[in-house]
Amino acid sequence: MWRQLAVVTNEASAEAVSDALVECGAVSVSLQDAGHEPLFEPKPGDMPVWTRTKVIGLYPEDADLAQILAELQSRFGGDPGDWEIEVLEDRPWERVWLEHFRPFQYGRRLWICPTGFHAPEATGIEVTLDPGLAFGTGTHPTTALCLEWLDGETLAEKSVIDYGCGSGILGVAALVLGAGSVQAVDIDPQALRATMDNAKKNRVEARLRCYRPEQLGSGEADVLLANILANPLVELAHDLRRRIKLGGHLILSGVLTEQAQYVCDAYRAWFDFVAVTEREGWVRLDAVRRS
């Protein structure tokens, strides 16, 4: 059994409450929107905080929540709001997502399948994927758009950078589709671990290297995919362009339709944009490095 201690607080207090939960023994802390306020543009590494944020601490069954609650109330008084305690039954949480995740097809050949599932078509190319604690199952439009691009390309022996790799879904898919090598990049160590785990499930780990951004070398790749968000993409323009060979492909996603021009303008000095593909309010931008 696990027990959960939660409170709805304001934007100014959310980080302090989160830190206090950790100091009081929480094994994990998560933040949720408590006011139906979409948050599209946190920068890499930023804590996602809403005007009304629900801060949730997870504690073992034997934790003394009465004492913890007294400590928190002495620190914050009634300002953060009313604290809630909930008992959680033991479940295999790392597999709960499978209740809603089944094989999905992208393009003509590519299938993303959770462990234990297979593509219904014998001719399909399968990627076995368990996202673990990192984002990326392929069901979001931005990821789906990138997977479809990979499915339509000839990747044999090409070098690929998956920038902001999350679960590693794009890099692993590229390798399964024939890419010669992939460099997976993320600021989150959990994402890098999930990426390598998924590469091992697909027996392509020998051609994969994982890096934090500051560890990535100076080499140029044939393809760079960055499925992150508009503001980080603009901020990274100078760095990303030097990582792509002349004539190489730049695939950008995580961009809202109304942000497409803003992102394209940041890269036009070095790239020709050859396609803009829109789905459900999101776009994929396809560009080629100008010779």
How would you describe what is shown here?
By secondary structure, the protein is α/β, with parallel strands linked by helices. The chain has 2 domains: 2-90, 2-Layer Sandwich (Alpha-Beta Plaits); 97-289, Rossmann fold (3-Layer(aba) Sandwich). Helix content is 26%, strand content 31%. It is built from 9 helices and 14 strands. It has helices at residues 14-23, 65-76, 93-96, 141-151, 169-176, 189-201, 230-235, 237-241, 260-267, and strands at 2-10, 28-33, 52-60, 84-88, 104-106, 110-113, 125-128, 159-163, 181-185, 208-211, 221-227, 244-256, 271-279, 282-289. Strands 10-9-8-11-12-14-13 form a 7-stranded mixed beta sheet, sandwiched between helices. A hairpin with a 2-residue loop joins strand 13 and strand 14. The N and C termini lie far apart (60 Å). Residues 39-47 have low confidence and may be disordered.
| Biggest sheet layout | 7 strands, mixed
What integer value in Å does the Rg equal? Answer: 21 Å
> How many structural domains are formed by the residues?
2
Which stretches of 5+ consecutive residues score pLDDT under 50?
39-47
> Percent of residues in beta strands?
25-35%
Quick one: CATH superfamily of the largest domain? Vaccinia Virus protein VP39
Kindly identify the CATH topology of the largest domain: Rossmann fold
Measured as a percent range, the helix fraction is: 25-40%
CATH architecture of the largest domain: 3-Layer(aba) Sandwich
The first-to-last residue Cα distance is: 60 Å
Describe the global form: globular
> Would you report the number of β strands?
14
Lateral arrangement of strands in the main beta sheet = 10-9-8-11-12-14-13
Number of helices: 9
Q: Taking all residues together, what is the mean pLDDT?
A: 85
What are the secondary-structure elements, in order, as H or E?
Answer: EHEEHEHEEEHEHEHEEHHEHEE
CATH class of the largest domain: Alpha Beta
Structural class: alpha/beta
